[in-house]
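User: Predict the complex with 6-O-phosphono-alpha-D-glucopyranose.
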Amino acid sequence: MCGIIGYIGNEDAVPIIVEGLKKLEYRGYDSAGVAVLNDGRFDVIKKKGRLAALEVEIQNTAQNATPIHGHLGIGHTRWATHGEPSNENAHPHLGNQEKIAVVHNGIIENYHTLRARLQSKGIVFQSETDSEVIPQLAEYYYEAENNLFDTVIKVASRLEGSYALGFMCVDTPDTIIAIKKDNPLIIGVSEHGNFIASDIPAVLKHTNQVYYLNDNELAVLTKEGITFYDTDKERIHKEIETITWSMESAEKGGYEHFMLKEIMEQPMILKNTLAKTLSQPPVDITRFNRIIITACGSAYNAGVVARYVFEKLCRTPVEVELASEFRYKDAIIDEKSLVILVSQSGETADTIAAMREAKAAGASTLAIVNVVGSTIAKECDYCFFTAAGPEIAVATTKAFSAQLLVLYSLAIRFAAQLNKISPAEEKSLRAELEALPDKVNALFAHTEEIQKYAASCIGYKSIFFIGRNIDYAIALEGSLKLKEISYIHSEAYAGGELKHGTIALIEENTLVVAISTCKRLEAKIMSNVEQVASRGANILSIGARHATASAVIPLPETHELFTPSLSVVVLQLFSYYVAANKGLDIDKPRNLAKSVTVE
Ligand code: G6P
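Assistant: Here is the predicted structure with 6-O-phosphono-alpha-D-glucopyranose placed in the model:
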């Protein structure tokens, strides 16, 4: 969702900002813009569509002998929430007097009230966005305050909702001010200047030295340095952090898409994540009588897989809830409940809200997060990091696999603590986990086969994924992956449910992907496959061989509970190649965002 970058320093801000925005494209956007402060006025260029369109516009101004440049500027990629994607609705937004420019990530929930109040004072709005109230309100307060710092604090005190904000003012051409609440913002420090940004990749070319801004903290950036304050205007000290991963690890490395690169990285990611599980914080599971896993999207699907694993190994009942539902359901939890939050970004608005609900009810919160320094990582009681590195493709692959692995490892650890498995069983389960990276590697031998089969699937209107037990759990992820990037309608069903309705949709030229790794349920899923095959469906079988299948991708042997780590790789490759054969924008699928930081 929306990406922010701001720069103040010795270099020309425009190319730095545009390049930074490109590194934030993965967040999802439908328009982009840049504003620089030069000679006491703002030069602003905003364009609907991809960054390439913005670049053309920037070049046009250069050809017309009015190039935009300056030593401080702010840029933004907008993912439309209030108002359609358009040049007018794109950020940065300016107030009527063109004194203050702002970029915003988040949602201002009371914007109707603020807008009406400002309009009653004669202020005319240029866009349909919630964000425009911010520069308009800022200019209104600035008249009395005459000082950007005090104005920003006053504006923030009137805003309800979530925001990461960057401000510039024509009267202070040596300063950018940033503030945030419930949306991420980092501050980068380089030799030639300083940055604000939504995420590290935007600044990594220039620096690996960053500060993570916390809620209700202000950063005042000049080209010489940065000072931090709280909203009572007290100076605060923050520790600078060094980013240890390189830009290279966030680049495509020869693959056509980030998604394929990230799929192929999985053996290494699994190894790194396993190594990291050795330094997980201690959690005493015996203190709890309930486990609730809550998350969104694929992270939720990881939770559905984990429920089978925890219940089987720990013999403890586990509930899995969508975070968007959990947060409003007045969950029955207390200090004896362990709420596990799963999130790649650590910034998903609903998952953050679910975490805060859980804490308020006295439960303990354990998060499985990929992004160090994210809100969930900072606020939860116990944090377990996945070692997936930066994930750029919107549709998650490697972070999902890393989440599964951390959940497996946690389940084994809890089962041992609860004396539900013997030390020998624990050892053998851990050995199975350690063997997974090589088994995923071995699966890549089927890549070409999957690619060819996927090429023949682009004409399907609907694709169904079926499985039983843990295979059903991973079918959910297979179906989500396919619809996210190929735009083909798909659904996942528990094999046993087919006869209760879905079988009515099966006709000639329907594809059914049958996942069948549970030996003890093989005959059951086999009979489901026969039922759909006899109604004209084509079958892709993952795992066991079915006589009626038009293609079979076998999987290496592993413990039944860990098979999702293998089947998901086939499902990811299948979705990827269907979308690639359709020529779609795989890394940035339409309407989707990598990190859903608004409700
Ligand atoms: C978005 C992404 C998904 C992700 C979900 C949850 O929908 O496109 O890939 O699974 O958000 O994100 P999180 O960062 O909390 O894992």
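The mean pLDDT is 94.
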